[in-house]
Design goal:
Layout: E1 2-13, E2 16-22, E3 27-28, E4 31-33, H1 40-52, E5 57-71, E6 76-88, E7 102-109, H2 110-116, H3 120-137
Parallel strand pairs: 1-6
Antiparallel strand pairs: 1-2, 1-4, 2-3, 2-7, 5-6
Helix pairs in contact: 2-3
Length: 138
């Protein structure tokens, strides 16, 4: 099994959070693989900028999630271990980058985002991150 360390952002703008719809019609959060000894927080900020066109600031860590899948291109199982960061932006503008990977995106009220997001662990991550964000922004 190929193990990959990844990092991503749970990006809030007021009471809304940013989601992307990928090529598999799944609603997900921006994230990417950590390469070449890069720092996880730098990778998370870069993926948010590359995938969503959003300049955000990290305000806290959000936790970790893991998931496994079979990579058709690699012909082997892959396990992604993702470190998540709670981020904030003051601008609701975004530009969905990497059109080969993402169909659309947007900021959604937290309840709508939890309903939209595809994976249950991402639903939990969103819920906990929003509570922590409100405490910190308090």
């Amino acid at each position: 099994m190929l193990l990959r360390d990844c990092a991503g952002g749970v990006v809030f703008c007021g009471d809304k959070v940013f989601l992307l719809k990928n090529e598999k019609n799944e609603w997900v959060l921006p994230k990417g693989v950590i390469k070449n000894g890069d720092l996880s927080n730098e990778v998370a900020l870069k993926r948010v900028k590359d995938e969503a066109g959003i300049s955000a600031q990290i305000i806290s860590t959000a936790g970790r999630t893991n998931y496994e899948f079979f990579s058709v291109t690699r012909q082997r199982p892959v396990c992604n271990k993702i470190t998540w960061y709670i981020m904030e932006t003051n601008e609701g503008d975004y530009i969905v980058g990497e059109p080969e990977k993402f169909q659309k995106g947007g900021f959604f009220e937290i309840e709508a985002a939890i309903d939209k997001v595809t994976y249950s662990q991402d639903k939990s991550l969103l819920n906990l991150s929003f509570k922590r964000y409100k405490e910190l922004a308090g």
